[in-house]
User: Which sequence fits this backbone?
């Protein structure tokens, strides 16, 4: 059955224009004015904005921190409700198992038949060996040609040292595999954490104090230097601070292929949230830590000017009551990470577009088109184009709402943006032509999301 989205304003990275969008067999078959709706189901988009479905290139559905695990793909309908139609998840390699076996087993058990949006994966090396380095060459044919390494988290099983980074980069570049790093200096954090705790400073606020900007800046510069040494392009995830942006920018200016993203929370929250009383501050423990207002402003400018090319959620669904309380006596034991996949678009719309910080076209670029390019998905996703998957979000700019966890699908017991004002809302979402959100309600089915192969030689190589 054909569908037609009628009367809306289509937003692309270049411009916006009134047009109808005709959909057949899950793909966009025409974009234009006054298209015939004969034989098609009509979806009204008048006075609304029609944009490509979001691609969230940074989510965690299996992350484990000191034994505590996040919510999984059973909550991926929250991504759909937030206008995101594809998520890319970081899967930590299991000890003694290969990267590919880890992901394939995880996919079968935890994503297939469960996911409610399309998905792919990034491999995370936690147990390096010759076999693992050899596997890097096979990641492209598996459809997940990207690797993340955690420079942070000393003492935890997923920490990677410079030796692992250099070796992985040297292999990755031969196969067009995108190298990503979580850039924070693990040793310096460990030292600062011990200083805090020894002085009796154990509350959540000291998470930020023990992870100052310099630990991120140092690691970002080091990762860039290793990338230069090995001649490998690099993608720095969740950039939070002015100095780290400047390191990326300086490399770019010299023509070194270094790219980065930031996240919704670094653009809208700051470290004072960690000082909230009654252990509420623990809700905002994520790494890198939340920063200051000046960093926030600089990050907005950076995404606007293209120094950072995507905005992800870094969604990490830990509960506050059961899980974050593990660190009630010592902030080092608070699971790192916060939920947010449901709010990415509405937050960027409200605090980016409505506040005049970015245009709607820039929003589309950061929310969907660039993440598609970064991950080798742009041949089928990330823009409203004939031949592309009909992954579409229709945003209604009218109305003012308050974000509350009461109507959230994220499955966690809190929302980082609780009480935030929201302008407009996601009205309708289509996933490969199927309506999965209608009148701001999720109406899709578990298993409707499909594994989607990413291609090697993503944007960092182009
Ligand atoms: O604190 C965070 N960001 N938790 C998720 C894991 C990571 O570091 O990306
Ligand atoms: Zn990280
Ligand atoms: Zn993350």
Assistant:
């Amino acid at each position: 059955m054909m569908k037609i989205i009628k009367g809306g304003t289509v937003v692309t990275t270049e411009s916006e224009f009134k047009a109808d969008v005709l959909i057949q067999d899950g793909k966009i078959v025409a974009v234009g004015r006054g298209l015939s709706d004969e034989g098609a189901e009509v979806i009204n988009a008048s006075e609304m904005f029609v944009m490509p479905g979001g691609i969230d290139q940074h989510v965690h559905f299996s992350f484990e921190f000191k034994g505590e695990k996040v919510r999984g793909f059973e909550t991926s309908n929250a991504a759909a409700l937030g206008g995101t139609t594809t998520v890319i998840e970081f899967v930590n390699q299991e000890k003694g198992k290969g990267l590919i076996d880890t992901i394939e087993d995880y996919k079968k058990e935890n994503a297939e038949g469960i996911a409610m949006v399309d998905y792919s994966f990034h491999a995370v090396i936690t147990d390096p060996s010759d076999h693992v380095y050899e596997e890097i060459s096979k990641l492209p044919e598996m459809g997940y040609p990207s690797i993340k390494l955690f420079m942070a988290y000393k003492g935890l099983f997923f920490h990677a040292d410079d030796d692992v980074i250099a070796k992985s980069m040297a292999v990755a570049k031969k196969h067009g595999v995108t190298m990503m790093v979580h850039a924070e200096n693990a040793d310096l954090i460990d030292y600062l954490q011990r200083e805090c705790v020894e002085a009796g400073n154990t509350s959540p606020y000291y998470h930020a104090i023990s992870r100052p900007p310099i630990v991120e800046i140092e690691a970002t510069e080091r990762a860039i230097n290793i990338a230069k040494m090995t001649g490998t392009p690099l993608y720095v995830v969740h950039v939070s601070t002015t100095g780290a942006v400047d390191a990326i920018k300086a490399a770019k200016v010299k023509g070194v292929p270094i790219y980065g993203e930031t996240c919704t929370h670094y653009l809208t929250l700051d470290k004072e949230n960690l000082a909230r009383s009654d252990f509420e501050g623990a809700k905002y423990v994520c790494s890198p830590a939340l920063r200051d207002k000046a960093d926030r402003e600089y990050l907005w400018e950076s995404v606007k000017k293209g120094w950072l090319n995507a905005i992800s959620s870094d969604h990490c669904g830990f509960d506050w009551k059961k899980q974050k309380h593990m660190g009630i006596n010592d902030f080092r034991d608070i699971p790192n990470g916060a939920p947010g996949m449901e709010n990415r678009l509405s937050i960027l719309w409200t605090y980016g577009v409505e506040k005049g910080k970015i245009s709607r076209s820039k929003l589309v670029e950061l929310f969907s088109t660039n993440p598609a390019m970064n991950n080798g998905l742009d041949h089928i996703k990330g823009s409203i184009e004939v031949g592309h998957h009909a992954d579409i979000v229709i945003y209604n700019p009218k109305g003012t709402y308050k974000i509350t966890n009461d109507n959230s699908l994220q499955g966690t017991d809190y929302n980082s943006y609780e009480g935030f004002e929201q302008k407009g809302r996601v009205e309708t979402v289509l996933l490969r032509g199927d309506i999965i959100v209608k009148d701001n309600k999720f109406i899709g089915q578990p298993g409707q999301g499909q594994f989607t192969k990413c291609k090697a030689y993503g944007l960092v190589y182009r």
User: Anything to note?
Assistant: The two ends are 38 Å apart (CA to CA). Residues 202 and 330 are 5 Å apart (CA to CA). The pocket of zinc ion (ligand 3) is lined by residues 58, 60, 238, 314 (CB under 6 Å).
